[in-house]
């Protein structure tokens, strides 16, 4: 048994080669048929892995070719054929991968393989071996009814690539529609349960993936979907370079390109790896765009770097090779100093980090002034260097900077090292540009001097003051000195009518500028020349003139920048001797503003003589307003329109004339006018006044009592004035003026009479109808109110002054009295009412008077039955004594008045106006008592008041405030 | 109890913004297909009966909050990976989970103190760890849609 076991392998070893040799001899090719060992699937990668071996291989190594076929759905549907050559070793397991474009879950695939010997050392095998048997490749996926499966799931792919989406339908599911983000996508039906959607050139949507979702029309479940993780395409690093500053470290940098990271751990950001081939070192960069490579081998001069970037889908590399000494990026210079030698020179020094004095460096030096490079220079230096800046401006701030590079192998400039410095001041280098304005005032010259500020380059420092020396030409020894502090740009001098020479200089801390000289002659400011009109453009004015003499030192053109303002803001322009024209430009020039230019010729003696005056506009504008028109000589047939002129400085253009528009119905235009019919049947006549100096216009041939409307407007080359509302005027009647001639004097006469009457009214009043005093309105009433002493009241009927006359004739009849009632008290009846003092002095009753003014009794007046006849009072018992008690008095008064009123036809509705005599001493109670004998002197007329017919009784009954009483005294009175 | 009510009101107020923030962060087609993709049609969500007794409601609330806490924890974890830049969503999810933890504690305390209920059987949502990304997005959206609807009812019931 053991023997046979040993013999069997030995037998096979002998027989098999024999068999092969026999096949060759017999002409039957020997076939090496590959044998498939396993077929596996990597679903995520959609990859089929095939493993096979070549049995019966007699050689240790044999170069063979294999052909692999893949079918889809069924074996006959071959979709892929691939040849694969390799050297096969005996008993070797061979591998081959194939990526399916369709997710393997969706479709069954079949795979088979055949082989052929392709080795030069052996006789060629003329034909392929037989195929291996088909192997089925499938992923078992069960789809539940009403369910949809979508493959691949969470696939990672690169932007721009293609992908096939596969849908597996469960039972009862149909009409499936799918969306990619917002866009619908369509597929093809592979069989009843499978459909494929091909997406070409997919685009990147988000780092968190691109959603695809599908839903069947009859689906009862929520939509199904998948996410495609579309990565940006990995870019090759750009501008990869390495350099050193100190020969210890190489700093390599590059532009990394877009970050291809995706979420859900699908893909991290791409990494960057540096590999140096000479040293064999490889380092993974910590940064996306740079890496510091330590120089370990000092002797290594040449470096060969490969920068590789990689993500899950792609790998990219770039390579550079360089000599270290050619990649030196020096550090910025240090210890930079700047020392000013004088106002125009400065010396800069600096030092460099260098490997030694033998190395030559190239340095670039720059001088900046206000961010502008004004000087640039390259210098070759060693470790330390200096540079002298010359031709600098005094009192100026500069910035000097320097950078260096390796002079032998220029790679890059170092960073700049800079230092700011200022040059010291120097005396002003330029004379002032001066001008003057001269006007005569009270027999002297008022000279206003102007100068322009020196430019910074001319001032060479801060101008502190301006010195003015006024030299009298007639008395040169008498020079006057003035100093004007900066920043003033002018001053005013008052000089007599002599000739002067004025010297002006500018001073700074370092010195004085060259002087500017102006001469003034006796007649300066008195020159009269013709004014010429010029036409400007939007850019300014072109001014030309005729030279006065051949030896002019130069010319000056001056003008006011603000011609309309009181502030002139004088501008001037100095011109050379051979100039006869110039262009005056200014941003301040405005359209519609008149500018007046004066051209002066400067003589050798620095005297300026006025040559010409020129005036004009950069752009003429239409007038902005119409004149205010006054109508004169207004008659029924004509009137004259007149208007004032415009101030020339306020004209928006040269006024060429005026247009008068006259509008009316049924009007005949003057032959000189232009007639236009308007839509409302009215006629518009236009008259043109071509003389701008004519400021009046006579409108003739008008109809009396007609309405006319007119408008006067100026016109310029740019148009006429605004279309304002026409002024309306109606011509008077033809006779109106006649009437006026009569009525006016009459009116005046009447007016005079009225004035005269009014003037004499007091006299007339006194004479014709003097005022009757109204005791009711006396201020004494207030005293009565306070004292409540009705005994002081005297009835007017007791005090009729006429009674005085009667006293003298005691026996005489009393019927002639106005108030003819029988006196109730003898004292009253026989005592004089006013001027006669009482026998017992001050203790006697004061004969104040009380009147009823029937003049104001309307009813009485109206009826005429009473008039001044106090009839009713005759019968009244109202002739009360002065000592009548108050209640009695009130009663009497009430009865008296009420009775009289009752007898009046007006009865209750009538008003009684009561006049009141003022108290002798208004408000002075003591005086009232003591001065009672002289009541007449205190009497006066007070205002009158209307008392309704019922009022007296009411007023008296309620209070004593309103009574027809006069207060005579206190207590016993 | 007032704390429970306050916490419920807080959750009710933040549920809407959380839902919007979630489906916006998922990208299309979620914002335009909220009804289809995020409809509140979860079958295993714990029930709630607003007309029940307080004890019943508290027990049901406990189950709901326990379910939600666990599920939202998973959603938060997934969104940190899937949408690392959606910081607003993360903070809303974290805040919601934090409130739910407090609410869970308060509800249990109330059940224990008042009703002497020391233990409540709870259920959790299905394990989504094996689901693909789209499914996770969708399930999270459905969960938040359901949560928004349920929390409104629950908040009103207390």
Please summarize what this structure is.
Chain B: InterPro entries: 4_helix_cytokine-like_core (IPR009079), Leukemia_IF (IPR003624), Leukemia_IF/oncostatin (IPR001581), Leukemia_IF/oncostatin_CS (IPR019827). The complex is a heterodimer of chains A (973) and B (158). With 973 residues, chain A is mainly beta.
Q: Biggest sheet of chain B, in brief?
A: none
> So what's the oligomer here?
heterodimer
- Secondary-structure-based class of chain A equals mainly beta
Strands of chain B, count: 0
Query: CA-to-CA gap between the ends of chain A?
Result: 188 Å
Tally of contiguous helical segments of chain B: 5
Largest sheet of chain A: 6 strands, antiparallel
What is the molecular shape of chain B?
Answer: elongated
Radius of gyration of chain A: 66 Å
Q: Give the total of beta strands of chain A.
A: 56
Low-confidence stretches of chain A: 1-27, 809-973
SSE string of chain B: HHHHH
Overall number of domains of chain B? 1
Low-confidence residue ranges of chain B: none
Keywords (chain A): Disulfide bond, Glycoprotein, Membrane, Receptor, Repeat, Signal, Transmembrane, Transmembrane helix
Protein name (chain A): Oncostatin-M-specific receptor subunit beta isoform X2
Main location (chain A): membrane
Pfam family, one (chain A): LIFR_D4
Describe this structure in words.
The complex is a heterodimer of chains A (973) and B (158). Helix content of chain A is 13%, strand content 38%. By secondary structure, chain A is mostly beta strands. In chain A, helix 10 (886-903) packs antiparallel against helix 13 (951-958). Chain A is elongated. With 158 residues, chain B is mainly α. Chain B has one domain (1-157): Growth Hormone, Chain: A. Chain B is 70% helix and 0% strand. Chain B is built from five helices and no strands. In chain B, helix 1 (2-25) packs antiparallel against helix 4 (87-115), helix 1 (2-25) packs antiparallel against helix 5 (133-157) and helix 3 (54-82) runs antiparallel to helix 5. Chain B is elongated, with a radius of gyration of 15 Å. Chain A binds chain B through residues 150, 153-154, 179, 181-182, 205-213, 215, 222-227, 263-265, and chain B through 25-30, 32-33, 36-37, 39, 41, 81-85, 132-135, 137-138, 142.
């Amino acid at each position: 048994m053991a023997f046979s076991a040993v013999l069997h392998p030995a037998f096979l070893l002998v027989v098999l080669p024999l068999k092969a040799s026999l096949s060759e001899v017999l002409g039957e090719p020997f076939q090496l048929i590959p044998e498939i060992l396993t077929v596996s699937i990597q679903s995520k990668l959609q990859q089929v892995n095939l493993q096979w071996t070549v049995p019966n291989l007699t050689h240790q190594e044999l170069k063979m070719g294999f052909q692999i076929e893949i079918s889809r759905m069924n074996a006959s549907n071959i979709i892929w054929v691939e040849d694969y050559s390799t050297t096969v070793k005996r008993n070797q397991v061979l591998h081959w991968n194939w990526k399916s474009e369709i997710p393997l879950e969706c479709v069954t695939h079949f795979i088979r393989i055949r082989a052929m010997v392709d080795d030069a050392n052996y006789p060629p095998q003329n034909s392929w071996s037989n195929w291996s048997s088909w192997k089925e490749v499938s992923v078992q996926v069960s789809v539940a009814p009403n369910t949809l499966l979508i493959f691949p799931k969470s696939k990672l792919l690169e932007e721009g690539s293609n992908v096939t989406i596969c849908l597996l339908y469960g039972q009862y599911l149909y009409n499936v529609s799918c969306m990619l983000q917002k866009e619908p996508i369509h597929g093809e039906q592979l069989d009843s349960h499978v459909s494929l959607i091909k997406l070409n050139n997919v685009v990147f949507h988000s780092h968190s993936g691109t959603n695809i979702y599908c839903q069947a029309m009859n689906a009862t479940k929520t939509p199904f979907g998948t996410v495609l993780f579309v990565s940006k395409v990995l870019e090759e690093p750009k501008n990869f370079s390495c350099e050193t500053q100190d020969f210890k470290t190489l700093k390599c940098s590059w532009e990394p390109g877009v970050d291809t990271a995706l979420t859900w751990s699908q893909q991290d950001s791409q990494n960057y790896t540096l590999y140096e081939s000479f040293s064999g070192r490889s380092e993974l960069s910590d940064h996306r765009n740079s890496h510091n490579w330590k120089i370990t081998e000092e002797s290594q001069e040449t470096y060969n770097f490969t920068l590789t970037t990689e993500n899950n889908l792609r790998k990219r590399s770039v390579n550079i090779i360089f000599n270290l000494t050619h990649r030196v990026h020096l550090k910025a210079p240090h210890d930079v100093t700047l020392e000013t030698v004088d106002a125009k020179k400065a010396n800069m020094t600096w030092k460099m980090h260098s490997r030694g004095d033998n190395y030559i460096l190239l340095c670039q030096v720059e001088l900046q002034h206000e961010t502008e490079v004004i000087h640039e220079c390259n210098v070759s230096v060693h470790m330390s260097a200096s540079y002298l800046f010359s031709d600098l401006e005094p009192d100026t701030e500069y910035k000097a900077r320097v950078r260096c590079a390796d002079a032998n192998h220029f790679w890059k400039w170092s960073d700049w090292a800079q230092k700011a410095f200022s040059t010291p001041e120097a005396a002003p280098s330029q004379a002032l540009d001066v001008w003057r304005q001269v006007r005569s005032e009270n027999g002297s010259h008022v000279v206003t001097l102007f100068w322009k500020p020196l430019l910074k380059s001319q001032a060479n420092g801060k101008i502190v003051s301006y010195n003015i020396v006024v030299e009298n030409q007639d008395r040169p020894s008498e020079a006057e000195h003035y100093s004007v502090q900066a920043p003033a740009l002018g001053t005013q001098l008052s000089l007599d009518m002599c000739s002067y020479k004025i010297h002006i200089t500018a001073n700074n801390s370092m010195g004085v500028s060259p002087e500017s000289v102006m001469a003034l002659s006796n007649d300066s400011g008195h020159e009269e020349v013709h004014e010429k009109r010029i036409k400007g453009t939007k850019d300014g004015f072109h001014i030309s003139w005729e030279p006065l003499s051949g030896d002019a030192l130069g010319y000056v053109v001056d003008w006011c920048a603000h011609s309309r303002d009181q502030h002139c803001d004088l501008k001037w322009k100095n011109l050379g001797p051979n100039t006869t024209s110039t262009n005056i430009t200014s941003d301040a020039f405005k359209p519609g503003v008149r500018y007046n230019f004066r051209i002066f010729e400067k003589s050798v003696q620095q005297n300026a003589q006025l040559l010409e005056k020129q005036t004009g506009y950069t752009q003429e504008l239409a007038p902005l307003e119409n004149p205010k028109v006054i109508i004169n000589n207004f008659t029924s047939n004509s009137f004259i329109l007149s208007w004032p002129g415009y101030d020339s400085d306020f004209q928006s253009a040269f006024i060429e004339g005026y247009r008068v528009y006259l509008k009316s119905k049924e009007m005949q235009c003057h032959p000189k006018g232009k007639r236009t019919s308007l839509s409302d049947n009215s006629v518009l006549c236009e008259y043109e006044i071509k003389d701008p100096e004519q400021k009046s216009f006579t409108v003739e041939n008008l109809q009396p009592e007609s309405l006319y409307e007119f408008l006067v407007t100026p016109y310029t080359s740019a148009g006429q004035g605004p279309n304002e509302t026409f002024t309306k005027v109606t011509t008077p009647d033809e006779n109106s003026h006649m009437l006026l001639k009569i009525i006016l004097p009459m009116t005046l006469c009447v007016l005079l009479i009225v004035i005269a009457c009014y003037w004499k009214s007091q006299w007339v009043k006194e004479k014709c109808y003097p005022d009757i005093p109204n005791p009711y309105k006396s201020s004494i009433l207030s005293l009565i109110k306070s004292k409540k002493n009705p005994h002081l009241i005297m009835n007017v009927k007791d005090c009729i002054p006429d009674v005085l006359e009667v006293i003298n004739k005691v026996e005489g009849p009393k019927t002639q009295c106005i108030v003819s009632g029988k006196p109730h008290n003898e004292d009253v009846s026989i005592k004089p009412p006013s001027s006669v003092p009482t026998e017992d002095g001050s203790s006697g009753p004061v004969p104040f008077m009380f009147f009823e003014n029937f003049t104001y009794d309307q009813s009485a007046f109206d009826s005429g039955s009473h008039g001044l006849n106090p009839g009713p009072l005759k019968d009244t018992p109202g002739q009360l004594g002065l000592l009548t008690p108050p209640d009695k008095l009130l009663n009497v008064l009430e009865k008296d008045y009420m009775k009289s009123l009752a007898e009046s036809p007006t009865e209750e509705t009538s008003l009684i106006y009561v006049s009141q005599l003022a108290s002798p001493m208004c408000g002075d109670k003591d005086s009232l008592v003591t001065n009672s004998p002289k009541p007449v002197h205190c009497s006066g007329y007070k205002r009158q008041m209307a008392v309704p017919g019922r009022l007296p009784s009411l007023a008296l009954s309620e209070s004593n405030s309103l009574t027809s009483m006069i207060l005579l005294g206190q207590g016993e009175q | 109890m007032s704390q429970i009510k306050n916490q419920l009101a807080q959750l009710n107020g933040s549920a809407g913004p959380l839902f919007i923030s979630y489906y916006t962060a998922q990208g299309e087609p979620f914002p335009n297909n909220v009804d289809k993709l995020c409809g509140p049609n979860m079958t295993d969500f714990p029930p709630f009966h607003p007309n029940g007794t307080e004890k019943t409601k508290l027990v049901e609330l406990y189950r709901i909050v326990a379910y939600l806490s666990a599920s939202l924890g998973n959603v938060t974890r997934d969104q940190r990976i899937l949408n690392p830049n959606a910081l607003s969503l993360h903070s809303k999810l974290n805040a919601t989970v934090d409130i739910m933890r407090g609410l869970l504690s308060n509800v249990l305390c109330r059940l224990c103190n008042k009703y002497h209920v020391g233990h409540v059987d709870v259920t959790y949502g299905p394990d989504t760890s094996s689901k693909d990304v789209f499914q996770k997005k969708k399930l999270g959206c459905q969960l938040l849609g359901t949560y928004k609807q349920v929390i409104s009812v629950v908040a009103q019931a207390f």
